[in-house]
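Reopening this ticket.

The earlier resolution said the output was attached, but the attachment link was broken on my side. Pasting everything inline this time so it's all in one place.
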Amino acid sequence: MSGNRFVNTRLLFGSLVLGLLTLPACNSGSKSFSNAPQAGGNSGSLVGAGSTFVYPVMTRWISDFQSSHSDVQINYQSIGSGGGIQQLKKNLVDFGASDAPLDDLQLKGLPALVQIPESAGPVCITYNLPELKVPLKLSGTTLAGIYLGKIKSWQDPAVKTDNPGVNLPAHDIVVAHRSDGSGTTNIFTTCLAKISPEWQNQVGKGVSVNWPTGLGSKGSEGVTGVVKQTPGGIGYVELTYATENRLLVVSVMNQAGSWVQPTAAGTTAAINAFAAELAKDVRTHIVDPPASAKDAYPISGLTFLLVPKQGKDPKKTGALKQFIAYMVTQGQTQAQSMDYAPISASLQQQDENLLSQVGEPHNLPRQNSAA
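Inline output:
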């Protein structure tokens, strides 16, 4: 799983209607976001927390947005999806970000909110085998065996089967995983649970699981560090962390039988494979797409903004809506330049509908699909 990374454009918002109605969309049809009010005067500070997966591009988005909105200060804390959800529950942040969408049961413990998909990308499997002269291949079944602790050596027959004719090193496998609540973990374990009945029965899926083996580390930064410093190491991180640290990445077999590297294009193919399901519920997982998606990367996921429908400060709510409108339209250019997959035109339309619910004075039903 290798790739390149995502660039910079500048958005200038004008008045409420003109600025947001003329906002050009990336890969979309008409994206007005006309219900997002213009922040005026001193809009103060916005605080968000959550996903480390989205942190690299979130940093870029914040910098670009603040360059044309000097009255808005945005602080995003990369503490993991689970941490962001807890901060939102405690009313300590204005928005959360999670790679693990909340189901209807989980929403009951939170104030009324909307979940807005704003980026997508591959979770790549990184490894530290400098002696290996060709890219490593691992099927989902082999990955499950490694993370179950059943496959302990790089010369295990299962690894050899995935890599015929390759001179595999004699290292023991050192597994690295997240120790904190993580949406990246949710994407990875959801994929393993779908592929491996044994994984589903023994471990399951979620932002936190009881790992059968391995070294736990906090954040994608921590997992990256463990793999980078450990010969024989293997871990899972968002692609930016792998490329910036020059880590090798695995090709993973999809349902079509193709060995696929983690790329934005592979994630876009996964999104497209689940277009019908996403139209009904934006929370649909896009892991392990069907065999018809020959180019799809199987460990792909969407990241969601978790936004309360009713903020405490109208000016801050207005500024937040502007920032979100930017992220899901022009901000997709920056995301794509950093190897995130741009969200589809249909998802952008759903985002517009969801964003229109934020700050509305009347009570709206909880989101159980795209609303």
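Reporter confirms the inline version is readable. Residues 16-121+301-355 form a domain with the D-Maltodextrin-Binding Protein; domain 2 fold (CATH 3.40.190.10). The first strand starts at residue 44 and ends at 50.
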